[in-house]
Input
Amino acid sequence: MELIKYQDEGQFSSGHVACGGCVEALALRVILNTVGKDAIGVVSPSCSAVICGGYPMSAVKIPVFHTTLESGAASASGIKRALLAQGKPDTTVICLAGDGGTYDIGLQALSSAAERNEDILYICFDNEGYMNTGGQKSSSTPKNAVTGSTPAGKTTRKKNLIEILAAHRIPYIATVSPSHLNDLAAKVEKAKSIRGTKVIIVLVPCLPGWGLPDNAAVRTARKAVESGVFPLFEVFDGVDYRLSVGTRSQSVETYLKEQKRYRHLSADQIAGLQAETDAEWDRLQARAVGGQV
Amino acid sequence: MHGNANGLLLSGNHAVAHGVRLARPDVIPVYPITPQTPILEKITELQAEGQIAAELLTPESEHSAMSACISASLTGARVFTATSSQGLLLMHELLHYASGARASIVMCNVNRTPAAPWGFWPDQLDSLAQRDTGWIQLYSETPQESLDSVIQAFRVAETARIPVMISHDAFYVSHAVEPVDVPSQSLVDEFLPAFRSDIRLDTEIGRSFGAPNDQANWNRSRRELDASMQTVNDLVIDAGRDWGALTGRSYGPLEFYRTEDAEVVIVTMGSMCGTVRDAVDEMRDKGVAVGMLKVRLFRPLPVAALREALAGVPCALVLDRNYSPGTGGVLHQELKSALYGLAGAPRLHGLLTGVGGVNVAPGRIEQLVSEFSGKEPVVGPVWVE
Output
């Protein structure tokens, strides 16, 4: 069994109010301990805001600024510029946002920060929907998934945010999973050492939102990686793709079958999702092999 | 005489940019919009020349500009931005956030008609519609006043920990060029020392901002804001007096122009004050007992001073260059509210003058005085051209 290699500096406290079994809290613990003490956080309304805590409690040791839903990247930019004006260029400014605040309402501000190549580390906890408001679809919700606003299943695909970000040619983009915590910690460490806009997307299987048992989040995240539904990779400077896990060992159906949001799927729909995953995997392989788009 | 040793011919917008330069801000997030753009361009030019040392941030929208202003201010930076009309309206959510977070931002808003239909003309509804957002609001009559107010505003914002919006009218002030005394850097440094709040986002301090609160704490946050708001009138008086001692140009929340023994007082804001000044002079020459009350500080409204000033005046005409649908002129509403129950309150006429930027000449103001001063006020908006 692989042990998690990171130093817990106590940057994330127990007693937070994430759902029992939530892996966003697990990922947050590793991320904050890897980023360390010389950091200021920006928290968009999301599960992160709840997990970080309501006044006067705080589960995180770094100072954080709770901002508005669409403002994460702009708020982080403001803090970074103020630190630059004060001669503190080394302090990490880290954004903690959900997929609603990233793929949807916060995309405009994120695109602008990326275009300016602001020196910020933007973490998107992607649970594929507005789970903090009870589970409605976002543009990150995958095809066929049932949510509170797509009761018959979403009819369109998940937005490919990574390709959008890659088009901005920012220095670093990565996907990470709470099932692969060493990979997660290494990518955060790498991002911390790079100047410019860094975006890390964390897959967060949401227990109530996806319809999973309390002990299934890590297992589900692992299946997402191993089926190729959520491949782990890095993109340097928008063009240099590198796969972190280069093989697939499970079918998409294996990933889908434990989740209630996919319980209604027909065999044809499952086959369709497998085909889409295969096509995306092939595209990613081609990019990673060539190191180019 | 402090004179015009440093006098330049400046538009209102360029005067603002020089005020910003002298205030030495740390961070300037700003987005272009007509007719504010010359502020942005002059600031970026001065920054490129090294005359402004600030971090300049040019995001994709006014919404992000204000977001960055708030977080930069809370990180301890002195922050300026500028906008107008649609841009201010797009910021609306963050305007509430800025005052709630007690960010000491200074912003210049160029008053312009809000769409629809599209227009680019002087009209104050854009900023007046923000009256409940918790910003201190100053209205400026001239380029000189705009420059002077920007510098005073930083002192007020940083003392009260409440953001300040200085509005001046599109084109009549923003683009009109006049001689402006540009004070020396040493004078401004004396008036406005460097500022870094000890309540800020800082890894050495560890304080966080904006976390969800329960009802009692949310309530307390607004009581604290209210307590600070109650200090603003005096802060504006002090800043205007101290600025006057250094420059010879004093300011206050209100200005009284030839109101001694006036039978009719015209109450207005912004560039209209310049027109009314000329009209008052003309009428005084003809023996008409008329004066002007200029409202410079609109939020918080100087209620006590307004009541004192207008008690016993037989008639007041409020000239509003804005129209709030369903009610009328915003300043008129505010005056009615301020004077409620006042013994000896004037007959208060609310006149919608110059809405949408239509020209109001001094001669027209004379006509309005003769037409309305003897009448009883009516309920509801009165449109005059």
